[in-house]
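Sat 14:20. Reprocessing the chain from the morning session after the first attempt stalled halfway. Input below, unchanged.
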Amino acid sequence: MGIMWRVGDGKNVRFWDDHWFGNSSLAIQFWPLYVICEQQGKTIRQVWDGVNLMLSFTRTVSKNNMNLWLDLLSIVESVTLNDDSDQIIWSFC
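Finished this time. Tokens:
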């Protein structure tokens, strides 16, 4: 509580489970997608190459969840990976 990740190279930050965007982990923010995703436990670098979000799901994403998918995609597209290491930062500053 009170910490989050600043994304650098994305090699240490778990995409769904770590707090790196918003007020909580993406697993909490996008629970309906998280529970059907096959890439749980993967790092940002493993699922985002700077162009493509490489996630697959155990079943078809419903119409209701498609808006969540588009929101998630928008978040990820705002991330630019670089050569810096990921850093834990204090989020109450």
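The chain has four helices and two strands.
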